[in-house]
């Protein structure tokens, strides 16, 4: 479903039938204490839609935390994303790329081009 800033997020849900527009929820925060502090305006600072668009790994687990920006108190609340891989059982430093175990780099070997002199015979 589209979040308020126009990006597509698989975890955002808003009921748009008759006065249900105020019942927007983030399904990544269900059952967490931060769910009470979440508002649809926080979707603008969330990187989950971009991560899911860049990395479609099924073993990547995303967790959200709503917090401040440290000493930058004028920025207000922000959404912080923590990623973990269930296959490698490690935290993922760059969730846009992944853990490195699930998506290994492939090396392609290209055969040399045939000689044109030999093909003319």
What does this structure look like?
By secondary structure, the protein is mostly beta strands. The protein has one domain (12-119). The protein is built from two helices and five strands. A hairpin with a 4-residue loop joins β4 and β5. The chain is elongated. The termini are far apart.
List the helices and strands and how they pair.
Layout: E1 12-13, E2 25-26, H1 48-54, E3 60-67, E4 78-85, E5 90-92, H2 116-119
Antiparallel strand pairs: 1-2, 3-4, 4-5
Supply the key terms.
two-stranded antiparallel sheet; mainly beta; 121 residues; 9% helix
* Run of helices and strands: EEHEEEH
Radius of gyration: 22 Å
Number of strands: 5
By helix and strand content, what is the structural category?
A: mainly beta
Mean pLDDT: 82
| Beta-strand content estimate | 15-25%
Question: Can you summarize the main beta sheet?
Answer: 3 strands, antiparallel
Oligomer: single chain
Strand arrangement, major sheet: 3-4-5
Query: How far apart are the termini?
Result: 62 Å
Tally of DSSP helical segments: 2
Shape, per Cα inertia axes: elongated
Quick summary:
By secondary structure, the protein is mainly beta.
């Amino acid at each position: 479903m589209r979040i308020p800033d126009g990006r597509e997020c698989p975890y955002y849900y808003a009921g748009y039938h008759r006065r249900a527009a105020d019942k927007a929820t983030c399904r990544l925060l269900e059952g967490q204490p931060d769910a009470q502090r979440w508002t649809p305006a926080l979707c603008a600072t969330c990187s989950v839609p971009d991560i899911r668009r860049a990395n479609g790994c099924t073993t990547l687990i995303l967790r959200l935390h709503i917090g401040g920006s440290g000493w930058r108190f004028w920025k207000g609340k922000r959404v912080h994303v923590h990623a973990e891989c269930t296959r490698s059982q490690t935290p993922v430093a760059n969730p846009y790329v992944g853990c490195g175990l699930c998506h290994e780099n492939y090396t392609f070997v290209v055969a040399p081009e045939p000689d044109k002199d030999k093909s003319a015979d």
